[in-house]
Hints:
The protein is built from 5 helices and 16 strands. By secondary structure, it is an alpha+beta fold.
Amino acid sequence: MTSPILGLHHVTATVADAQADLDFSVAALGMRLVKKTVNFDNHFVYHFYYGDEVGHPGTIWTTFPYKGKGVPIGLKGAGQITVTSFSVPAGSLDTWKTRLRERGYALTDAPPRFGEESILITDPSGLIIELVANATDSRAPWTTSGVDAKSAVRGLHSVSLEVREPRRTVEFMRDMLGFEVVNEMEGRIRVAVNGDGPGKVMDIVAAGDAGWAKNGLGTVHHVAMAVGSEDDQLKLREELVGRAQVTPVRDRQYFKSIYFREPGGVLFEAATMSPGFPVDEPVAELGRGLKLPPWEEPHRAEIEAQLPNVRH
Length: 312
């Protein structure tokens, strides 16, 4: 089938402390904070977006810091994204090991798979983050004084979905979303769409007898895939009706979204490429100020008073 899916758009996680999250994503991983806004469903909680210079779809990692809001620690397991992987240049993993260990983060070498080397890091909230080394990612990175172009994160590489019945998930992603199986090993099936490079890939992992996941602190909430236009999004939604419970289109200010679950329980989103993060602030100032959607501006003083102070 001709797929409306262009690749990954973003991954969103529920985290604990806002400052610790900023320190990990910006100060340690070297990503840019491209938007500081609020959770549209709970405006007393931040929504941080990290990515490259302008937050191109496929580079975006987003978090909701829920510390102190009564959200319990989540459970990792079946029906969930258990690993979020970022792409870094070949030969850079030793640099990353030194950098992250100096900052006190726990990490391990991941077992090799599909010819790629990687390391696994536990973030401050307990999320499993992976850095995958490869020589094929040509995306321009965001660089800082501490992270140069020889090692900087290029964007999302892939996500690992843990599901009870992998073949059902593969069939759904093939038939409804246009993904194809591009590699396979014991307990893991790699699917890709619109090519098979970094940012186009998901790994479907057999959950075995793992318990069901429960969303909470330290868990991934959903993965979003990019669609080229609002028309493509509406067409996809029409095709999904009857095959999955799919939401109406929701305006997320920087893109429009629909949400649905694949057969294994993982929450998917299809998000438009535009208008993008510079729609409400210049590129040079992205992430510096608290940006609120128009309907929340009348409540700015109340919102700011209940959000934790953060530095970045």
